Amino acid sequence: MPRSTVHRIVHRVTEEVVAIRHKVIHLPKTPEDLAAVTIGFAGLARHRAFGKAAGAIDGCHVRIKPPSGPDGHCYRNRKLFSSIILQAVCDHQGRFIDTYMGWPGSVHDSRVLRHSPLYRSLYPPPGHFILADGGYPCLQHPLPLITPYKRPVRGVGAQRFNWHHSRARSIIERAFGMMKTRFRAIFLQALEVHHTFVPHVSKARFLLSK
């Protein structure tokens, strides 16, 4: 099959899948949906203090071929391979409810967050928060973000908080793990597409992993 034909088919199928992504990947739409998420996170954490958690956020690196040009080095991450950052939020069951992608691998997670639509969105509602690891800042506004106490952790209270926090937040790591397991061949090698098209391919993978 000619390379041009494969190129056209891949782009066409990917665009069709991405066009319906909002039907699958979306934030809780009703108070009942949100309540189910918060109750679920309280169960994961094994503490009612996490009964207002509305999601867990993290980022992962999607391996790409090193882009040519003067900006190619910007895509080299701290693990020394070229990548594009994928930021995602999942619910208590590991279902992705928000995704954002496109920044070079060398960019810090906190900067990606500040430029994402989620950062200034209306989610989560007042009184709720999103769980994040220590790579993110602990925020109250514009996006309520709860992170663990930084090391060295002092005091029994802080240790217990971090334990409950970790139990709830780790669902996002399991969600990424399930996606990488399902698409092992794609995540273990660089994508054979132009780096500007990688976000579209990754969004399609999110939908196919549902």
Automatic annotation (TrEMBL):
Its cofactor is a divalent metal cation. It is found in: Nucleus. It comes from the Eukaryota. InterPro entries: HARBI1-like (IPR045249), HARBI1_dom (IPR027806). Its main location: nucleus. Residues 57-206 form the DDE Tnp4 domain. Keywords: Hydrolase, Metal-binding, Nuclease, Nucleus. One of its GO terms (molecular function) is hydrolase activity. GO terms for cellular component: nucleus. Belongs to the HARBI1 family. This is DDE Tnp4 domain-containing protein.
